[in-house]
Design goal:
Blueprint (H helix, E strand, L loop, with lengths): L2 E7 L13 E6 L2 E5 L5 H7 L7 E5 L11 H10 L6 E5 L3 H11 L8 E5 L6 E5 L3 E8 L5 E8 L5 E2 L10 H8 L4 E2 L5 E3 L1 H4 E2 L6 E5 L9 H4 L4 E5 L7 H6 L5 H11 L3 E5 L9 H8 L5 E3 L5 E3 L3
Parallel strand pairs: 3-4, 4-5, 5-6, 14-15, 15-16, 16-17
Antiparallel strand pairs: 1-2, 1-18, 2-3, 7-8, 8-9, 9-14, 10-13, 11-12
Helix pairs in contact: 8-9
Length: 305
């Protein structure tokens, strides 16, 4: 299964230095999940030739404008393109009222169903349970209600060693082997051992997205050992007081969370406009966690098996 993240926007607050406000597109084969929707999101989707119609789910972390001001434009374009499929939006309370007010003000009756679901929980909560993956949300510590998101592949079947299979093996016995079970004969003896006829399942991949948040040591409990973590890194450490007063994180703090959680790689983002060059942000993070990288708009990060 394709599992990759397209960076659409990487800046905080306002567009600057050819960077736009936060937005990412997660692709899981033919399913697209949009995470946050800064004001240039639909322009970026068009620029990178991404088909709007494949977006079935939108996750909005919180209701600061740089994370959702692009939503009404995207929804309007979907309407103009005669979308018919359900669009599901998850967000903290208040977003539905905002979007409905904008649609009502323009006398727009959408040609597709639009469903809002509230993020109001504490702890981690599963939002979607698809065939091959799940999507969950967990709370972050920001100035207003804010959530991070976790996307995990479901456990994969054991891999059949076809060259070892007897010619007369039954389909139902192969299914048992793929599920990791030995096949027993009528007397309860092992007929086909899973260890002999299969290889272990391929790795189930995972991605965690930590939007705006102050440094919070409870986060690793939600995202332990994920393959790829995105964590905001609005400031460098010389601006730590500013980070704390605005409920944001520094690059070193983002890297510390990555280290504590034991993740594979860290993506930095949500850069302050004061940083035209991002080298210092990356250098600071790598001094704490070597596998740190900048999120760069237009780049696609593939999560490999």
């Amino acid at each position: 299964m394709i599992f990759q993240v397209k960076i659409l926007g990487s800046n905080s607050a306002v567009p600057a230095h050819d960077r736009n406000q936060t937005s990412q597109l997660v692709q899981l084969d033919s399913q697209y999940i949009l995470i946050d929707c800064g004001e240039a999101t639909q322009i970026q989707l068009s620029r990178f030739e991404i088909r709007f119609g494949r977006i079935k789910t939108i996750l909005i972390s919180h209701l600061h404008g740089d994370h959702y001001f692009g939503l009404i434009g995207l929804i309007s374009t979907m309407h103009l393109f005669q979308r018919t499929e359900l669009l599901q939006v998850f967000s903290p309370p208040g977003l539905e009222e905002i979007i409905r007010l904008q649609l009502n003000a323009s006398s727009t009756e959408l040609c597709f169903p639009l469903r809002f679901s509230l993020l109001i929980h504490t702890g981690i909560d599963q939002l979607l349970d698809e065939k091959d993956f799940t999507v969950s949300a967990f709370p972050l510590q920001h100035r207003i209600s804010c959530y991070g998101f976790l996307i995990r592949e479901k456990p994969k079947p054991w891999r059949i060693r076809k060259e070892h299979l007897p010619e007369d093996i039954l389909i139902q016995d192969i299914v048992k082997l793929k599920n990791g079970h030995d096949v027993l004969d009528k007397d309860g003896n092992v007929k086909y051992a899973c260890s002999e006829y299969t290889l272990p399942p391929k790795h189930s991949r995972s991605y965690a997205y930590c939007s705006d948040t102050i440094f919070d040591k409870s986060i690793p409990d939600y995202i332990r050992n994920v393959d790829l973590l995105y964590h905001e890194a609005t400031f460098a450490s010389d601006m730590q007081d500013r980070a704390e007063s605005t409920y944001h994180s520094t690059a070193a703090q983002a890297a510390t969370i990555a280290s504590l959680a034991g993740v594979g790689k860290l993506l930095l983002g949500h850069y302050s406009t004061r940083y035209k060059e991002l080298g210092p942000i990356l250098e600071e993070a790598r001094s704490v966690f070597a596998e740190s990288y900048l999120s760069i708009e237009g780049e696609t990060v593939v999560i490999k098996e």
